[in-house]
Each structure stands twice: as structure tokens, then as C-alpha cells.
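Please annotate this fold before class:
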Amino acid sequence: MTSTSEFDAAQALSGNGPVFGAVLDGQWDGIGITNGGFLLALATRAIGQLVAFPDPIAVSGFYLRPGVPGPVEISAEVLRSGKTTAFGQASVSRDGKELLRASAAFSDLGAAAGRGGLSYDGSEPPDQPPPGQCLELKRATFPPITLVNHLEYRCAKLPFWAAGGAPSGRPVYEGWMRFVDGREPDLLSLLMFVDAVAPAVLEVGAGTMSTVELTVHLRGRPAPGWVAFRTQTRYLADGYLEEDAEIWDSGGRLVAQSRQLGIVLR
């Protein structure tokens, strides 16, 4: 018998749609609130129950309120379904108050492989040693970041908050990550992975931040194994910042890109 992974168990949906139930169990939190990528994956999972295509390819969400442990309701609908792409949206609510409004486009990435014949890759994966040669990255906070209990991180050089010292002034983090329980990466988990790294803006002295909007482009079904990440901030002004993330699979292929608008809280 195959056991259910921690991630899939925590994302379990009840009901047949278009309204689903789920429970935020408090085990996938940032500092006291549910991780934004986890919430976006949950909304996308609900939309995926209704559309005729298997793969989310573009997902965007506005964060209206923080997610806290307890039951939530996800209302999903199909906006349009064409020959190659379907579009849907979902609302995640708690006690009648909306937490997240998300929209997603779905397609079949297997059928799309090689379409058009052209390719161009202007990116490079993080220049990191293999995971076995890297340092284990841990972060202790209060309230605790429960999300990191389910993920393993490795990097060539520890950031200041793990190694001691002062912020570097260079807001870029690179390294590896995977699920602790051995679950292999897939498209839904990539939606969380892009938001599962400490904010790179910490390296310029920011304290905590909150996500206003997050958009993720999913470029391919990831190969099994560790995924490599790069997250960075290029602009911070008037309390708002952009954070970009890129995820490569174990074969060195770029499988996810994201950009989020965040607000510095302190």
C-alpha cells in the first residue's frame, strides 16, 4: 500500500466541487501564518479538479488575508476551456472571509513538448556543488516556521541568519531543496517551492515581509530528485519589494519561475 505524502495529506480536498473543503493544519506556516505558496497550490488543486487538462502552466493569486489554522472553503469555477488551454479561478475563504483569490491556466505539457520546434535558454542554474557536498540550512524562529519541518535545504554558503554575522547587502539565495519524506517534486509542489525559501530581502536588513501578489509560470514537469532554487530581490522602495524565484529540476531544466510583490512589515 502506498502511503500519502505529508504535502498531499495536508492538501486533501473534501467534496465533489465546485465547492471544496480543506483544513489548514498549521504545519505549513511561515511565521504564524500559512505559507503563501502552499495556499496557492491548494487553490490550484481545486481548479484542477474541474478542468480537462492535467497541468497548471500559469497561476496568480492575490492575498487578501493571512491564512491561519482551521477549516477553509474553496470555491472554484472554469472560466473557459479551449483546444489547448483551460482557465479557471478559485477563492479560498475562512469563516466567510476571503483569504486568497487565485486564477490559473491549465494545459497538457506532455502534448506541448517540442511544439513549434524553436528553443532558447537565456538562464543558468545556480552554481552550487551537489547537495551531498553542501551545508544543511536550518532556520529557528519564534513563532516557529513549521513549513521547514517538511523540507530539507542545502547550500554552498550559509546566509547570515544561519551562520551568524550581519546581512551581506546582496539579496540573493541559492541552493537545493526537497521534501523530507521523499515525495518527488511535481507541478503543484513547485507552486510552494517558489515561496518556501527565506526572503532574500533579509540580506539588505529587512525584517519580515508579507505577500500581496504571487504569479508562477510552470515550464515543465520536474524530474525526480532535488530541485535547485534561486530567489532574489532587485528593487525595494517605499516599503514594497519584488522577489523573483527560479526552480531547476535535477536534470538542470528550468521548471518554474515566479515573481511576487511583497510589503516589508518591519
Summary: The first helix runs from residue 6 to 10. The radius of gyration is 18 Å. The chain has a mean pLDDT of 94.
